[in-house]
Automatic annotation (TrEMBL):
It is found in: Mitochondrion matrix. Belongs to the class-I aminoacyl-tRNA synthetase family. Its main location: mitochondrion. The lineage of its organism: Eukaryota, Fungi, Dikarya, Ascomycota, Saccharomycotina. One of its GO terms (cellular component) is mitochondrial matrix. It holds the Pfam family tRNA-synt_1b. The keyword Hydrolase does not apply. Its EC number is 6.1.1.2. GO terms for biological process: mitochondrial tryptophanyl-tRNA aminoacylation. This is Tryptophan--tRNA ligase, mitochondrial. GO terms for molecular function: ATP binding; tryptophan-tRNA ligase activity.
Length: 368
């Protein structure tokens, strides 16, 4: 490919040149190139429902790390475990405890600097539930009923709960509690963020201007697909655990899963064509995300691969290079529960200091 074409393709993919501004409400971004405006509040959460997988890492948590490294000093960075959300699909208390502490270890192991970012547990702040209630009075049940995640999560459940239905309202409360301006998430959260902006607008209209409408920040690798069925997203809850690569897995486990990853019978070349070659394209997308290269650059790097083994060995090599350090750090941190508890305790206190001031303002506006 001519250099000019490659530059254009790169720009189109990363949209790295677009500066964030207050009118863009959903944008692809590259935190290394893009400017986050001064005095922004960046906020995101992850559910402690199992180990982090490659989708969580590339779609969300690595972006959190980049933001802690590259956002201006005047920005607030707040990241949490969404443990209140995690119980919308009931789990034993011991699992919740274990997953919460593993989630903190994973966030730190991915390189998020706890001295720069607040890292906390959602359930430690009663203000989340308070704002949730206020926002729930503004949320239309018809709108909630259209949420695709609610539909897919409630499918097959005998008795799906009010909590699962109202889940996106709590998510909006999480974000607005800190008057967040930017929310880095994967593709599957776009619809929830739209609801959040609608609720912020309704609150502003009814009770006076309080919230800026938060921008959704999508990483270039906003959607990593299942290795076994590349038409679905990679997910912690996939019944086929060969579909998902976790960031603490050994190189042997990863090699086994990549070997079983669905591709196709063409081995003369490996190119990105999501419609006709979804499996191969997903693996190329993973490489491109990890290496922060455009799809075209990756295609050019692998242009002389002529068999599946060479291609898949390369995928394993790239994944292992990236997660070696997080994997090592995770194993170390997860043994050290005192250290993890101390970090969360500090994070809970810092988060509460902001939330308790904000909730007073919101309640006063409502008339309490
Ligand atoms: P969850 O595990 O559902 O709590 O997701 C935590 C974060 O990871 C959210 O920002 C999701 O959008 C993101 N995420 C989850 N699965 C994927 C995926 N397969 N590809 C990209 N991002 C994902
Ligand atoms: N719903 C999100 C997910 O499943 C997790 C989440 C809860 C979240 N509260 C949030 C993400 C607030 C961003 C902002 O991934």
């Amino acid at each position: 490919m001519k250099p000019q074409a490659s530059i254009m393709a790169h720009a189109a993919r990363n949209l790295g040149q677009i500066r964030l501004n207050s009118t863009v409400k959903t944008t692809s971004y590259d935190p290394r190139k893009q400017e986050i405006p001064e005095h922004s509040t960046l906020f995101s959460m992850i559910q402690p429902t199992g180990m982090f997988h490659l989708g969580n890492y590339l779609g969300a948590v690595r972006a959190w790390k980049d933001l802690t490294d590259y956002a201006p000093d005047s920005t607030k960075l707040i990241f949490g475990t969404a443990d209140l959300h995690a119980i919308t699909i009931p789990k034993p208390a011991k699992d919740i405890r274990k997953f919460r502490s593993e989630a903190i270890a994973s966030i730190l192991a991915s390189g998020v600097n706890h001295e720069r970012a607040i890292i906390y547990h959602q359930s430690a702040l009663p203000e989340h539930a308070e704002l949730n209630w206020i926002l729930s009075t503004l949320a239309g049940t018809g709108y909630l009923n259209r949420m695709t995640q609610w539909k897919s999560k409630s499918e097959g459940l005998d008795n799906s709960s009010l909590g699962l239905f109202a889940y996106p309202v709590l998510q909006a409360a999480d974000i607005l509690l800190f008057k967040s301006t930017h929310v880095p998430v994967g593709d599957d959260q776009v619809q929830h963020l739209e609801l959040c902006r609608t609720l912020a607008e309704s609150f502003n209209k009814q009770f006076g201007k309080t919230f800026k409408l938060p921008t959704t920040l999508l990483a270039p690798t906003k959607k990593i697909l299942s290795l076994r069925d590349p038409l679905k997203k990679m997910s912690k809850s996939d019944k086929d655990q060969n579909a998902t690569i976790y960031i603490n897995e050994t190189s042997d486990e990863i090699a086994k899963k990549i070997k079983k990853a669905v591709t196709d019978s063409t081995s003369t070349h490996f190119n990105y064509d999501p419609e006709n070659r979804p499996g191969v394209s997903n693996l190329i997308n993973i490489i491109s995300g990890i290496q922060r290269k455009s799809i075209q650059e990756v295609e050019s790097d692998i242009s002389d691969f002529k068999d599946h083994k060479t291609f898949k060995d390369y995928v394993c090599y790239v994944i292992n290079e990236e997660i070696n350090e997080p994997r090592r750090k995770f194993e170390e941190l997860v043994q050290n529960s005192n250290y993890l508890n101390k970090i969360v305790q500090e994070g809970n206190e810092k988060a509460r200091a902001i939330a308790s001031v904000n909730i007073k303002e919101f309640k006063q506006k409502v008339g309490f």
